Amino acid sequence: MITILGIESSCDDTSAAIIRDGVICSNVIAGQAVHERYGGVVPELASRAHQQNIIPVVHDALKQAGITKEEITAVAFTRGPGLLGSLLVGTSFAKGFSSALNIPLVEVNHLQAHVLAHFIKEDEQDQNQPVFPFLCLLVSGGNSQIILVKSYDDMDIIGKTIDDAAGEAFDKCAKVMGLGYPGGPVVDRLAKLGNPHRFTFSKPRIEGYDYSFSGLKTSFLYFLRDELKKDPDFIEKNKEDLCSSLQKTIIDILMDKLYQASVDLHIKEVAVAGGVSANSGLRNAFEEYSNQYGWKIHIPKFAYTTDNAAMVAITGYYKYLSGEFAAPDVAPYARVSI
Fold this sequence. Notes:
alpha/beta, 5-stranded mixed β-sheet, 9 helices, Nucleotidyltransferase, domain 5, globular
């Protein structure tokens, strides 16, 4: 029986999870509300909060799983990418835990973990995992990628953003409208009440499967600037329609490229992952494409959309099976690809 403790601390969520033979036993997440007043994550505050949260979070994960630390087979941790100060906290804790119990240490790529979250089993009978090869749309505040997943440890990024990510576009456009941080969930909530066809915003023309969202942000900003000159209350009067039209534009951009990749590569097994995969509009789009084009889709549970340790633990589980262990002097990295 292989029992993995997963540690996630790449940004502003401290998380610990236990996975036993691929089945989830616990997944505990502690958020950091301190960043809301600043309109974004403050790295120094994030690392301090991780130091306060990590021991209680691991304790709760063990307690909810009903096991002792002596039953842990290996400890997996997020090495990167992410905020270096935050990653150092998780890395240091994992090293100390591994050394104290004399168990293997497994480093995990945060982006790969988002993809492999689809392989977390809710129970031993769970057979809803994707079949290789499949396409995965990874969308978050920092990444917008189309990934060709050939196996647990063989993934190719075939499309990526050349500037801003989709989640960043959501958050920054929301900030311009005065909707607060994080803005993505607020846009999603208001979009349900609006008309997605009311306003039209520019879509980029980028070759291949790559994305670009900087032009959309600029188009949105200039549109609001011009309308506010005519009516200072324009945003407040049209908030729902603005959010709905913005959300539709971002989702159209994402799905157009993903569909093209599906056609070109003859792959109908398609998944979505990352923070933006919690967006209801994007989830609905996947359902529509499944019905229209015969895709077999894989949409993660909401608990696995944001940064969480369950995805780290499942990745660590497969790396453990392959004998991929980290050296005790391993250091975190802020930037890296899959």
